[in-house]
Every structure is written in structure tokens, then in C-alpha cells.
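Step 1: inspect the first sequence and its C-alpha cells.
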Amino acid sequence: MDNKQKILNLVQNSPLSNEDKKEWEALVDSSPEISIESIATILESLPEELGWLTDVLKRKKEAFLVLKEDKEKGEKMLQVIYQEERKKIEGWSNKLK
């Protein structure tokens, strides 16, 4: 099974809303293979993080929309998200050792 299908199977079998599932389908369809591979690796190892990843996906989407209208505010929103991601990834790294 390829990485896109792995992600979609996990998403479809999750308790996420139909709207969130559609967001994941759009993400998988529009992302480069290297991103798909990274997401698949994370979700295979830590499927319980799907909800958190979904939240981050929605927050990033909102921040990029804000960025178009208010560069400073959008950049601040993205900075907060990136810092949160960094901490989370460090935690995953320690958890998977």
C-alpha cells in the first residue's frame, strides 16, 4: 500500500468529522511525496496524534489566510504553530527512542 493510501485509510477509519476527512484528502492530493512520506511515517508510529495534526493543519490554513491580509499577524500565528510543532516533534523523538 502506498503512503497516500495509508494516510487516507487511517483518516477514513478515524472519528474525525467528514469535513476534517475532506481536508486530509485535499492535503494528500496536493502535497509532494516527501511530505506524504513524513506524514505517513508519523501516523503509522503515532496514530493517536491524528487529532493534533488535524488541528495544526486547520490552524496553519487559517494563518496563511490571515497572512494575505495582515502579514505581521499571520507571521505571529505561524510562529506560534511552528514552535508548538517543534516541541511536539522533540517529544515524539524521545518517545520513539
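Step 2: inspect the second sequence and its C-alpha cells, then contrast the two.
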Amino acid sequence: MLKRLTIITGTILLASAAWAEVLDKASSLGVAQDATTGIWTLECLSEVTGISRSDAHSVGASVQIADGTGAITIFSIQKDMLPAERRVTESAEGVYDFEMKKAGNRIKVSIDVLWPSVGTGDRFICVINIAKGLTGAHEQLYAMEYTHSIRSSGTP
């Protein structure tokens, strides 16, 4: 059973004003702690609607935990999705699950990360960039970055 769940909605960074009129974008960040195990769960979601199914897309994403002295990258990925693909996944059991799905004119990216402990003032940082085109030759459609600070040890 989760002790507490925090959902944060943040500022959308737009790479191109032209796409702002055509694409709908949404994202969220949730942080919770399991009351029994004490394990922290971070769920980061990002979605763009209005894409073309016939285009290739790429996603760059990372999750870090930071304290006053530095940051540790828990998860970092760069994935391409060809037009014929509908789902790209990657996971490391007990650490993270990554999924990029294309359905119709929508692309959705979800990241779930587990982390054993955090201290007061520590911050989870989640970054997702969704682009049209393959890595290295793309046009950014949507970029989001969320930061969630831990108020006190054991409290999201």
C-alpha cells in the first residue's frame, strides 16, 4: 500500500511555435513511497497527440536523484521508433520500466523507476524529449522536465 502519492503538472517547453497549434501535449510526475517496504516509486508520463503515424519518432529520457552535493542518474535512454513499430520497451527488473507507444496519431512515453531511499531535500528529476525523426536527425516536438523535492525523509 502506498503511503502518499504526489502528482505534479509542470510547464511545457515548446521547441517550435508552429507545432504548438497542431499538437496536444500532456505530462505528469507522480512520486510515492510504499509504506511496507519503504521503496520509492517515480512515475513520469508524457504524451503528444497530433503526430503522423507514417513518421519515425525518437525519445530521449532520463531520471536522476539529486542532493546538495550532486546527482545520480538512475535511468537514461535514447530510443527510436520506426513508422511500422507501435511499441518500444526496455526494463531492468527492480529498477526501471520504459515504454514508448504509438496509437493512431498519439505517442505516449512512460517511465517507472524504483529507488530504495531518499533523504530530506533530495530531488527526483525527470526529463523526456519527444522528437519527429530518428536520433541525430530530428525535429523536437515536446520537451518536459519535472523536479520533485522530498520534504522530509519518508514524505513525498
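Step 3: confirm your contrast with the notes below.
The longest strand covers residues 70-81. Residues 2-149 form a domain with the Immunoglobulin-like fold (CATH 2.60.40.10).
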